[in-house]
């Protein structure tokens, strides 16, 4: 983990201040290109949009080899995204959704006006985009009531009036990765235009799996998108879009680190987890490697993901009013194998399957902009079916079989051999909402924006779990006591956890009746109905032609739901109480400004204070499950800034940064890391994290960019883009384990390109993470190491190191 001093912060923070001073002293005049966004439904200049927003245009995405949403975090401060053991975390300003497939996303993702609500969908690759906008703070009015942390607003490239296209290819030398992408666009008839784009990627990976002797994660993805745009009349336009894709991953970038000897009495005392696995149970010797060296021990993982999206968009220009209808169908599914003990030992495997199907339709009316007012209003409907299943499997050769025998001094382990805990969960949802934003200009230079969204949602959910054999058949007589063992050792309740169906196992202390009282009974089903109003008020003041100031207040809500992944009722009175969790609320106060300095520079800032109540928290139970509840309250305050300066005809500097102060004001039921002394004042066995920051939250993040274009040989140019990213330290685990704190670090990306000044073709060389930082992205307690064997061990996701690319592109 890299260490950096506070000087990095001062350097990045002072960069924009120094730029402003130099401009005011009289720098060379050079115009900046305008950045256009659609964050408020209309196309607006970024400097005219009273929101804390970062926009990344298509050229920047291509130049920096941004391939998916996760890559944006090194260009956009206060946006964080990372993979975890079984899910994806997305955060803006320190707020996101935890590890549970049932969670709605606090950071809403929209592509061409269509909502993509599942976290796994954000792993899909980017293809043929026009721009990506990252909106910070609650965005309920125009992006749905769940967008309480912010939104990703992604716009794809549209069909064009003229025939055009491109073909690009990239190759990475260090880890042997290549990407091919292309698009063709143009007229089909006088009134019909089309565009088709495709992409393929293949990557060998950058972590060595010593158990299987291969590099991981190996990635292969492809996507095809077709669009058809037709002018049905002079004022009525139709756009149809079809997109299909697949992204598959073999293996993961996880290493086990930080092992300490077992403190539990018995046969494993004094041994590390790796020593227990290798010496006690004959696991592959690779489990003994617990250093951060780009080498992992695993029996293998995979993730196969398929996406389909079909969109019909109709736009009618009615005397200056734009009436737009957007109807979409989405289908997303994945099939995963997680070697979720995260070691090369045969301990257990987790299989996960998810399928999500959604229909949505929105009718939106955008008025003309009159002298004194204008408005946007609409209706939205969405229905979805969400099916989830997972299986925690104990294969016949699992070390758990002899381990349970040793721990219980019996043959109880034989009962769990070749069994699995098979879970199924479903949610059906119907959502209806109406929204409007009215912009009033009572006097010149002053605008009052009043917005609101009224939403009604109904959800029905079910969950069941049974202990069965590996073929999903009923247990044999030799396995009949398996549900009792799963309950005692792993805290897993099941439909077949009954005294009548199980032989006694006296070495396991709690009988089935006691376990059912402690863990809860399955199956469980419930429903919820929520009606919520989300208001948003902004006061916008054009102080001068070049300075816009704004103040805003907004309240948002994120829908509750049903806990798909809990193995028991946790601390709730019944499993029904634990199954359903309520909505969370956010109230945001913000002031900001956008300053243009002539046509050569701009500086923007925002200061915010956000209060969150009833935060939906998902906490790993230290064994094999996650528990969800409305567990916490938090306050976040901070300052965000960005700016650009056209220093000369050849050089443009830009920068952005964010100072963030996150504090849980009430969080008494956090999961302790292994070895931590529980200190919750209200719930035995848990830890009080009141006063702590959230995981993955840095006090400061910043980006500084230098963009150089220099003409050579009359009609050609050499261009160079360098991005410096810095973040201060952060907690990589949700349990605040001191062993999983990432110190501050800096990365540098540089691209050098050559081609004609008027385009046509370009060849470039790109270095990413030139400082070769291997930083910790996420971590936690290694499953079963502490809870079963009494040994401390951590699993950790580490970043990719330095990569070197060659890129070529031809435009026609």
Automatic annotation (TrEMBL):
InterPro entries per the UniProt record, alphabetical: Beta-barrel_TonB, Beta-barrel_TonB_sf, Plug_dom, TonB-dep_rcpt-like, TonB_rcpt_CS
GO biological process, one term: iron ion transport
Domain TonB-dependent receptor plug intervals: 46-151
Cellular component GO terms, alphabetical: cell outer membrane
Signal peptide: 1-29
Residue positions of motif TonB C-terminal box: 795-812
Topology versus the membrane: Multi-pass membrane protein
Presence of the UniProt keyword Magnesium in the record: no
Entry's localization field: Cell outer membrane
Pfam families for this protein: Plug, TonB_dep_Rec_b-barrel
UniProt KW keywords: Cell outer membrane, Ion transport, Iron, Iron transport, Membrane, Receptor, Signal, TonB box, Transmembrane, Transmembrane beta strand, Transport
TonB-dependent receptor-like beta-barrel domain location: 281-770
UniProt xrefs under Gene3D superfamilies: TonB-dependent receptor, beta-barrel domain
Family: Belongs to the TonB-dependent receptor family.
Protein name: TonB-dependent receptor
């Amino acid at each position: 983990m890299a260490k950096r001093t506070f000087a990095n912060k001062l350097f990045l923070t002072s960069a924009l201040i120094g730029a402003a001073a130099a401009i005011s002293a009289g720098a060379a005049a050079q115009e900046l290109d305008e950045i256009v966004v659609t964050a408020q439904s209309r196309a607006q200049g970024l400097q005219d949009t009273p929101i804390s927003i970062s926009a990344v245009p298509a050229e920047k995405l291509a130049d920096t080899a941004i391939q998916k949403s996760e890559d944006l975090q090194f260009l956009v401060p206060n946006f964080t995204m990372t993979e975890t053991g079984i899910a994806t975390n997305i955060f803006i300003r320190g707020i996101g959704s935890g590890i549970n497939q049932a969670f709605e996303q606090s950071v809403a993702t929209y592509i061409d006006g269509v909502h993509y609500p599942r976290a796994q969908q954000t792993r899909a690759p980017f293809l043929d985009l026009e721009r990506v906008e990252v909106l910070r703070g609650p965005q309920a009015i125009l992006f749905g009531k769940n967008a309480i942390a912010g939104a990703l607003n992604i716009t794809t490239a549209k069909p064009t009036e003229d025939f055009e296209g491109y073909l690009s290819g990239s190759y990475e030398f260090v880890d042997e990765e290549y990407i091919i992408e292309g698009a063709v666009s143009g007229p089909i008839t006088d009134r019909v235009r089309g565009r088709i784009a495709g992409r393929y990627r293949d990557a060998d990976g950058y972590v060595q799996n010593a158990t299987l002797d291969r590099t991981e994660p190996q990635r292969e993805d492809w996507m095809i998108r077709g669009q058809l745009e037709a002018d049905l009349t002079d004022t009525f336009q139709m756009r149809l879009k079809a997109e299909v894709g697949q992204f598959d991953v073999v293996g993961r970038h996880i290493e086990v680190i930080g092992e300490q000897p077992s403190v539990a009495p018995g046969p494993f005392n004094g041994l590390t987890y790796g020593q227990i696995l290798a010496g006690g149970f004959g696991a592959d010797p690779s489990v003994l490697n617990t250093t951060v060296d780009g080498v992992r021990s695993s029996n293998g993982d995979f993730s196969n993901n398929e996406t389909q999206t079909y969109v019909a968009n109709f736009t009618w220009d009615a005397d200056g009013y734009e009436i737009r209808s957007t109807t979409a169908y989405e289908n997303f599914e994945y099939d995963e194998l997680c070697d979720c003990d995260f070691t090369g030992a045969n301990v257990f495997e987790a299989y996960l399957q998810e399928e999500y199907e959604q229909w949505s339709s929105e009718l939106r009316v955008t008025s003309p902009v009159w002298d004194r007012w204008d408005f946007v209003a609409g209706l939205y409907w969405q229905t979805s079916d969400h099916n989830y299943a997972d299986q925690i499997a104990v294969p016949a050769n699992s070390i758990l079989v002899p381990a349970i025998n040793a721990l219980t001094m019996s043959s109880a382990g034989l009962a769990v051999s070749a069994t699995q805990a098979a879970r199924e969960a479903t949610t059906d949802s119907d959502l209806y909402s109406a929204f409007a934003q009215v912009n009033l200009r009572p006097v010149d230079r002053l605008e009052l924006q009043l917005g609101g969204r009224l939403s009604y949602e109904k959800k029905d959910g079910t969950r069941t779990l049974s202990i069965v054999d590996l073929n999903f058949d009923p247990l044999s007589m030799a396995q009949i006591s398996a549900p009792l063992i799963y309950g005692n050792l792993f805290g897993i309740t099941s439909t077949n956890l009954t005294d009548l169906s199980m032989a006694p196992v006296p070495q396991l202390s709690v009988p089935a009746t006691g376990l059912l009282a402690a863990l809860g009974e399955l199956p469980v089903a419930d429903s919820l109905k929520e009606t919520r109003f989300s208001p948003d008020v902004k006061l916008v003041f054009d102080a001068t032609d070049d300075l816009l100031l704004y103040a805003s207040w907004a309240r948002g809500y994120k829908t509750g739901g049903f806990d798909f992944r809990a193995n028991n009722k946790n601390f709730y009175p019944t499993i029904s109480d634990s199954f359903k969790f309520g909505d969370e609320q956010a109230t945001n106060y913000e002031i900001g400004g956008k300053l243009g300095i002539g046509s050569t520079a701009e500086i923007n800032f925002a200061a915010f204070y956000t209060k969150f109540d009833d935060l939906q928290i998902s906490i790993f139970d230290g064994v094999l499950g996650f528990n969800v509840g409305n567990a916490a309250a938090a306050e976040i305050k901070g300052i965000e800034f960005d700016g650009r300066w056209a220093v000369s005809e050849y050089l443009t500097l830009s920068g952005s940064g964010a100072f963030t102060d996150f504090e849980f004001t009430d969080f008494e039921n956090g999961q302790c890391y292994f070895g931590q002394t529980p200190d919750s004042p209200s719930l035995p066995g848990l830890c009080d994290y009141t006063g702590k920051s959230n995981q993955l939250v840095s006090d400061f993040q910043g980006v500084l960019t230098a963009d150089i274009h220099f003409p050579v040989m009359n009609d050609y140019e050499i261009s160079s883009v360098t991005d410096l990213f810095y973040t201060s330290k952060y907690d990589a685990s949700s349990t605040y384990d001191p062993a999983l704190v990432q110190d501050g670090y800096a990365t540098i990306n540089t691209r050098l390109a050559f081609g004609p000044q008027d385009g046509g073709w370009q060849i470039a060389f790109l270095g990413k993470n030139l400082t070769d930082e291997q930083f910790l992205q996420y971590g936690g307690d290694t499953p079963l190491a502490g809870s079963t064997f009494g040994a401390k061990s951590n699993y950790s996701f580490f970043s990719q190191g330095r990569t070197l690319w060659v890129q070529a592109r031809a435009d026609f």
